[in-house]
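for ur thesis appendix - YitT family protein. copy paste whatever u need, i formatted it the way the template wanted (i think)
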Amino acid sequence: MIGIAMTTSTADSSPSTPIASTPAARAPALPAVRHSWIDNLQGQLFGVVMIAFGMSMLHSLGLIIGQIAGVAFLVTYATGISFGMAFTIINLPFYLLAALRMGAAFTWRTLAAVTAVSVLTNVAGNYISYSHLDPAVGAVLAGLCVGIGLIGLFRHQASCGGMSILATYVQERTGFKAGWLLMGFDLALFATAALFLPMDRVFYSLVGAITMNLFVAWNHRYEWYIAR
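the 3d part is after this line
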């Protein structure tokens, strides 16, 4: 291995004096960085659009996704009410947790994000149609879109409601990865979905949910991200 530590060989230097040759040793400490309001706004908008785009793919295939959105999809398929309405109603109790644990600003940002995702998912069919979308490909693409959208919200001090509020709180307080907690919830959700949906749709939905959760678990790490 090269560059961990080196010693000088000149006569006027002590052989025991280390030379810091790694970038980490030479680089100065990075200063704390804070997002401006425009930084947070663009990040939150990106997250909302990517999540809604992923939801529209899932809806077109008759699939579900993990977390509270998956519950909203099941309610939609069972009752015929819009996804946006179901998603909004189911999220209501979680705003209290957000207000008590995460603060008013986080709660308002989450409320705005949930509302925007609900509206955009409902109207996406007016602007995007999928004449052919393979269920396996659609599930993976939707999982990636929703996953990167959630990270966009998390990194800019918001969430998409529901279990992501709880997962974000637990990760910030304990270090337990948000993705793993969400995956546990999803296992229970998909066990329930198997009672109501055809098994092929449950399988493809599970592929999308696993893709999303693994993406979040591997990429949303608090220690990797400097700006606050």
